[in-house]
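C-alpha cells
===========
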Amino acid sequence: VDKYEEGSDESGSEEEVEGVAQSESESKEDPVKVLARRMTEALASKRNARRLFKDVITEAKRLQQPNIVVFALSSTVRFTLEQYSHEKCLSIQGWKEALAAFQECKAIIQSSRLYVLETVAEFSPAVTQETSEKAKEVFAIDFTKINTTVVVGGIRGLYESLFEEVRRMLINNEKQYVQCLEAECRIVEIGYELLEKAENRKSRIPTLLFSALSQRTPAMHAILCKRFNLSTPFDITGLYQMAKPDSLTMLQYAYHLALIGHYRQAKNLLVSDYSATKLLKQDEDWNGNRFLELKDNVSISIKIAYNRVIVQLAIAYFKDGNVAESAELLSGLREHANKWSILFGQGLPFNSFNLPKDLRARSTMLFNSIQIPPHCHVPQVSVELMYFVAISMKRALETSQGMQSFERDTFAALRRNVNDVAGEASTSNEYILAFDDSLQSGDVPKMVNALNSLPIWAVLDGDASKAKIIQKAKAIALQCFIYSSAANFTSITSKYLQERFDMSEAEVRKTVNHTILTSPEHLTAYWENESEQSICVERCNVAGLRKTLGQAARNTSAIQVPTL
C-alpha cells in the first residue's frame, strides 16, 4: 500500500510538472497565436464549441484584440444556429443568445472600424477533420493585424440566418408564439438599420424584410410596434423597389395590395406585370369565357403565394360589395376544400409520423421552408361562409335579371344536413340557408339577423364591411321582389318599397333604375309619372319571342308553294 501511494504521488507530480511546463511554454508564446490555436480547437469541437468561444472572447477582450472578438462572436452565432439544424427550430432563449452575439459583433465592427473579410466557408461541428482544414484556411490570415478580422458569410449572411430561424420558430414554436412574433419584429428593425449602408440594399435583406412586412396591414404593424415598444418604419413600396424582382416578390406585393383593399391594382399587377407572364396562362371555360390560371411547371412556394393572392382578392371584392367577382374567384378553390391546408401552406401534405425517422426530419425541414406563419393564415371557415353568402347573392341577382343560375347545387349538401330552417337558426349552415331563403323572399329582418350572426366579420374588418354587404343584400332582395311581383301587381309605390326593405328614397330609386336598365329582355318597368312615386312593372320574354319567331320563319320558308 505504501508503494502504491508513493507511486501515485510520483505520477501526480509528473503530470503537474508537464502542465506547468506547458503553461510556461504558452506564456512564452505569442498570445495571439495561443488564441488562434484555441479557436481552432473550438471550431473542431462538437459539444463545447460555444463554451470554448466564450473563453476566447473573454481572453481576447482582456488582451484588447477586437478582431479576434469579432471572429469568435460571429462563430458563436453560426454554431448556435447550426447546433439545432436537424431539429424543428431553435428555442427562443438560444435565438436571443445568438442575436446578442450578433449585435455585439456588429457594434464592435462599427466602433473599431475593422476591415471585415468575408468567406463562404461554413463550419459544421459534425465533421472534425473538415472543420480543422477550414480553420487552417481561415487562420492563414494574420490576426496580429488588429484592423483585420474574419466573419464567416459576412454580417449579411449572419443576419439572413437569424431571419430564417425566426421564420422556423414562428411555424413550429406554438408555446412561445408571442415571443417569436416579438423576435420577428426586432429582426425586422435590425434589417432596417443595416439598409442604411448602400451595399446592403443590393443584398437579400430587402427581400427578407418585404416578405415579412407584406403580410401585414399598416394598422397591424402599428399595433405590433406599440406592443413591443419599437419604431420600425413601414415602407412597402420602397422595399419592393429594392427587393429581388422575381415572381414570388410580385405575388407578395399583389397580396399586400389586396390586403389593404387596393384589389384593382393587385389584379392589374397579376395581368400586366412581366413576372406574371411567366406564371399565368390564358384558358377558356365551357361557356367561352376567358380566364387566367397558373401554369403547371411552377414551384410549390409560387402556387401557395398565388392561391393566397386569389383568396385575398376575393375577400377584398366581397368587402367592397362585388359579390359576383368574389364568388367567381372562390369557385375554383372551393372544389379543393379538403386540401385547404396544403394549398395555402398552412400544414404538411402528409403525416410525418408515418415516415421513417431519417426522412421525417428532412421532409419536415423541406416543407417548413414554404409554410406560412399562423398569424398570416387564411381562415378556412370564414372564407367558406363568405363564399356561400356571395353565391347566394349572385344567384338571387341572376334570378332577378331573368337569367338561369347554375349555382343550384351549391346549397344541396347544406340542405341535406339541415332538416329545418323555418325555426330559429343556431349553426352557421342554418344561418346561410336562412339568409338564402329570406333574400329571395324579401324578408329583410330575417336576412339581416342571419348576416349579423355569421362569424365572418372579424376577417372582413368589422362594421364598415358589414354595412356594405347588408346594403347590397337589401338591393338584391328589392330586385328579386320587383321581378317576382311583376305578375301580381300592376304598380308598386316607392313608399312601400322603402318601408319593406328599410331603404331611403334615393337608394330605392337607384336600385329600381338599375333593375330597369339591366333587365330589358325579361322585365318591362318604368316610373308611372314625373314625381316617380310608383313604378309600373310587367314581365316580358323577348328571348322566348325571338325563338318563337325564328321557328315560325323557318317553318314558313319550308312551305313549298305549288307552281301553276
Observations:
- The longest strand covers residues 534-539.
- The two ends are 152 Å apart (CA to CA).
- The chain is about 65% helix and 5% strand.
- Residues 1-26, 120-140, 419-425 have pLDDT under 50 and may be disordered.
